[in-house]
Design brief:
The structure holds two protein chains of two kinds. Chain A is built from seven helices and six strands. The two termini of chain A are about 30 Å apart. Chain A has helices spanning about 5-40, 45-60, 65-70, 95-110, 120-130, 150-165, 210-285, and strands at about 75-85, 115-120, 135-140, 170-180, 185-190, 205-210. The longest helix of chain A is centred in the last third of the chain and has 75 residues, at about 210-285. In chain B, strands 1, 2, 3, 4, 5, 6, 7 and 8 form an eight-stranded mixed beta sheet that branches. The radius of gyration of chain B is 15 Å and the shape is globular. The chains are: A alpha/beta, B alpha+beta. The interface of A and B includes residues 42, 149, 205, 214 and 228 of A. Strand 6 of chain A pairs parallel with strand 5 (about 40-55) of chain B.
Chain lengths: ~290, ~130
Amino acid sequence: MASVKEMRTRIGSVKSTQKITKAMQMVAAAKLRRAQAAAESARPYAKAMANVIANLASGVSGPSAPLLLGGTGKDQRHLVIVATSDRGLAGGFNGGIVRAAREKIAELIAAGKDVKIITVGRKGRDQLRRQYGDRYVESFEVGIKPASFALVKPVAEKVLSMYRGGELDVVTLVYSTFKSVVTQTPTVRQLIPAVVEKSESTAFYDYEPDEDTILEALLPQNISVQLLSALLDNQAGFFAAQMAAMDNATRNAGDLINALTIQMNRTRQAQITKELIEIISGASAV
Amino acid sequence: MADKILFDLVSPEKLLLSKAVDMVTVPGSEGYMGVIAGHAPLVSTLRAGMIDLKDEGVDTRFFIRGGFAEINPTKITVLAEEAIPMSELDLAIIDQRIIDAQEDEIAAKTDADRIRAAQLVDDLKLVRAAF
């Protein structure tokens, strides 16, 4: 059995671990609030953008539609963008996204498609590189700042230049939707060709300067916006998952400390009793 | 002017304003245009410039750095790349945008990008002159 001294050291180390997890939980909670506000305030723009595109798309369809909207008409070369966080210690958050991505990739490969991968976030890169290293195009890091257009821009540019260069037919994004603080769902969403929701209005729009110019500007912007809103969702989800994970860790550390303390007290008491018996039996022998 | 038009101004970061107003003036790509309720459906790209709201005789102004406007008879939605309320705007901000746009112009890889950046510089200079 471990000595009292060893156990005391062990309790000390668990206690300092608990302090760290507690601090991380509080930091995550504070950051979550900011990330959640950012994710929510980015939604009206994405929604308004989807609306405009839905209205426009009802007017243009068929072979004359722009590539980003109508697609190339083929379904052979796929790009999967996997958005995760840079850091771990967030329970199953990144694992869930990576699992969804793996399923999607495996499904595409099984169907005989060419699959390429771009990752945003270090965790996704680390976990997917081992398995699909040869399919890698590029990986981007998220950094510690809240997601912004500056962060999304290089990703969107890379995707668009590949698409315009005729290297791709379909682009899919895998990320985690932030439903609430307790639920984040890994989501697979098609980015290109644009998935258009049913338009609300049936009005015929005039276009200034003209339809092509507007779609030419609007569709790439839409890619950035969708990426941005996915990354903002991811960040909020990450902090929520980290908060929950660290809360659990803090509680587990507390349980461990209690158990160890009881064990240590028992051991110490046993030792004291033993010494007393020795003294008493020594005295009675005299 | 009994009817008001619902005006939404959104930037990628947030919804800045959602309000019924008498008239909205936006910097359309073909020139400034005033929009009141009952306007024909229109989608337009926007230049950098000022958005002017008139409501009950009160003017509210926003600076936007390009974007889109979707207009239908009851509603106008402005999707701005960046929007700053007039009260928070000063010359330093505009100057910074001009410098950024000039850098973009130099760094542009394609003619289309260069023309777009040059256009942005010109528009921003007009905003600055009018400020």
